[in-house]
Design a protein that fits this description.
Blueprint lengths: L16 H11 L8 E4 L9 H16 L3 E6 L9 H13 L8 E3 L4 H13 L3 E4 L3 H6 L18 H12 L9 E4 L14 E5 L13 E3 L1 H12 L3 E5 L6 H10 L7 E5 L2 E3 L6 H9 L14 H7 L3 H11 L6 E3 L1 H15 L1 E3 L1 E2 L2 E6 L8 E6 L9 E6 L2 E5 L19 E4 L4 E9 L5 E8 L17 E2 L2 E2 L4 E8 L23 E9 L11 E4 L3 E5 L9 E7 L4 H6 L3
Parallel strand pairs: 1-2, 2-3, 8-9, 10-11, 12-25, 14-20, 18-21, 23-27
Antiparallel strand pairs: 4-5, 5-6, 6-7, 13-24, 14-17, 15-16, 17-22, 18-19, 19-20, 23-24, 25-26, 26-27
The structure holds adenosine-5'-triphosphate and magnesium ion (MG).
């Protein structure tokens, strides 16, 4: 299935407060070298759908304003960062359809420069080495209503600070023995300005710089300056950094940085029935609540890719939710709605029986096989047709039959006639059961004059069922997914893990699919008629494909909306 099949609103120009701010900066001549944005992941986990929002925004802005977007790894904490994450992040950004060209950077590339700037702050009296323990620093930071208490080391002479800082770098002190702090304002109403920590001693092997460094910059000290080094004009980040902006601006004002990035904050994406925090996603993986980072139930980019959500549908979703300044939560059903809409236009139709029951057509010649013509996509004539084999023994869906039909059940029942899609009208004559009373087989007759599905006398037949030839069908495993968490807000009950949905996956090992699906490639998504969209899983083996249900056919979003969310 081509990823370009749907028209993507992501490609249409959007208007929002970020784009307005950029237009103003362009008009004011502040972006002489072009608009430059960046996506700055910390490589301490796999990317999730929330990151997709940030990626689409940053790379989208660069595209719209003919600028460029950097991919920069904020790799300042070697204790939590791994090469596996660096690799997966690059693969995921590419898969989403974005390209950083030659602009791949690492905050660790700037360690030497950042350290030089730390010495600059020390020599200008704007930073000091603090010997307090981490607990003492926390204790003395104060609260929202109470000013902080100055460290007893705050007025250490610059020369002494410089000496200590150099010895910290040389590895003379134990982890945690001392930190470097900015000397700003212990009484500031903004706690981020109460002498924040700039450097900590940490003996940890860094994925890129190895054992070169005994001290590492904090995220706050590295982030804004990395932007300035790269000439980022617009540093787009989530709202929790709004209170950090005065600190970043303080660094920019007190250091000889080569440029002055403008930070603009937007609301992060929250989704119902899932969690979007790397710390929690790591816990789900480590503790075996899911099969891995790419488990199709995970909100990770690799999980939704394996689930069969196309990149184009994700870009659509991100464009449609837009950016705002207030935090909110998006219904997961809206994401599913976007995926369904996208796949409806793009996916080929196939037949598959997930929970089969055998049908024997007693008046159909034994050994005969007919190849019947079936359309590949009713919305797209260019998708053409295929042949589907029909024979004396077939499978239909177990729940398409009721021995004692309920009111409004119009599908197969004893004595009743239904249409087999693309094939014939059949009538149920006899129900065969095993010793336990379980229905094992339905004996039917067919009307040879109804080939293609219509009776020559025009008699009405209400139901149309999908089916598979027993002789030629391909055995398959089908995995049906439900939301990973039962509640819209897994935190509502206090214990998010207790809200895990025990029925988030259901494996149907005895499905049968039409022969055309035997050749489907891993990652390909098709519509199983009357069932939903299904994607070929990498667990597939020759002769035994495995399918993940991406989304069902029924749109549950309208229902969620009607309930008022
Ligand atoms: P998490 O909270 O999951 O640990 P993070 O913010 O620590 O994520 P980073 O690697 O720092 O993860 O994120 C990289 C970029 O993606 C940042 O600019 C961050 O603001 C953005 N981002 C992270 N989560 C979301 C989200 N839910 N919605 C929008 N943007 C996000
Ligand atoms: Mg972060």
């Amino acid at each position: 299935m081509a990823d370009t099949a749907a028209v993507s609103p992501a490609d249409a120009p959007a208007r929002d407060f970020i784009r307005d701010a950029i237009r103003q900066d362009i008009a004011a001549g502040k972006t002489a070298g072009g608009v430059v944005t960046r996506f700055p992941p910390e490589p301490n986990g796999y990317l999730h759908i929330g990151h997709a929002k940030s990626i689409c925004l940053n790379f989208g802005l660069a595209r719209e304003f003919n600028g460029r977007c950097h991919l920069r790894f904020d790799d300042t904490n070697p204790a939590k960062e791994e090469q596996e994450y660096i690799d997966s992040i690059q693969a995921d950004v590419r898969w989403l359809g974005f390209d950083w060209g030659t602009h791949l950077y690492y905050a660790s590339d700037y360690f030497e420069q950042l350290y030089a700037w730390a010495e600059h702050l020390v020599t200008t009296g704007h930073a000091y080495v603090d010997d307090q323990t981490a607990a003492e620093i926390r204790e003395n930071r104060g609260t929202l209503t109470e000013a902080g208490r100055p460290s007893p080391f705050r007025d250490r002479p610059a020369a002494e600070n410089l000496d200590f800082l150099r010895r910290m770098r040389a590895g003379e002190f134990a982890d945690g023995a001392r930190v470097l702090r900015a000397r700003i304002d212990m009484a500031s109403g903004n706690i981020n300005l109460r002498d924040p920590v700039l450097y900590r001693i940490l003996r940890a092997r860094h994925p890129r710089t190895g054992d070169t460094w005994y001290l590492y910059p904090t995220y706050d000290f590295a982030h804004g300056q990395s932007d300035a080094i790269e000439g980022i004009t617009h540093s787009i980040c989530t709202l929790e950094f709004e209170d950090h902006r005065p600190l970043y601006d303080w660094f920019l004002a007190h250091l000889p940085v080569p440029s002055q990035p403008r930070q603009i904050e937007f609301a992060r994406l929250n989704l119902t029935h899932t969690v979007l925090s790397k710390r929690r996603l790591i816990q789900l993986v480590r503790d075996g609540h899911v099969r891995g980072w790419d488990d199709p139930r995970m909100p990770t980019i690799s999980g939704i890719r394996r689930r069969g959500y196309p990149a184009g549908a994700i870009r659509d979703f991100c464009a449609r939710i837009g950016v705002a300044k207030a935090n909110s939560t998006v219904e997961i059903q809206y994401l599913e709605h976007c995926v369904r809409e996208y796949l409806n236009a793009a996916a080929l139709r196939r037949m598959a029986v997930l929970d089969p029951i055998k049908v024997v057509i007693e008046n159909y010649p034994e050994g005969q096989v007919e190849e019947l013509e079936a359309v590949n996509n009713p919305n797209d004539a260019a998708a053409g047709t295929r042949k589907v084999p029909f024979g004396r023994e077939l499978y239909i869906e177990r729940d398409d039959f009721m021995e004692t039909p309920a009111p409004k059940f119009f599908r197969l029942a004893p004595g009743r006639e239904v249409r087999l899609r693309y094939a014939y009208l059949v009538t149920c004559k006899e129900v065969v059961k095993d010793a336990a009373g379980e229905v094992t087989e339905l004996v039917c007759t067919y009307d040879p004059a109804s080939r293609g599905g219509n009776a020559p006398d025009g008699r009405k037949v209400k139901a149309t069922l999908h089916w598979i030839s027993a002789a030629r069908g391909v055995p398959a495993e089908v995995r049906l997914y439900d939301h990973l968490f039962r509640s819209p807000d897994p935190d509502a009950g206090g214990d998010w893990l207790a809200d895990l949905n025990p029925d988030s996956v259901k494996v149907l090992a005895g499905a049968v699919v039409e022969p055309a699906l035997a050749e489907a490639r891993v990652g390909e998504v098709t519509q199983f008629e009357r069932q939903g969209y299904f994607c070929v899983d990498p667990d597939s083996t020759p002769g035994k494909p495995v399918f993940n249900r991406s989304v069902g056919l029924r749109d549950t979003w309208a229902k969620v909306q009607a309930r008022g969310g």
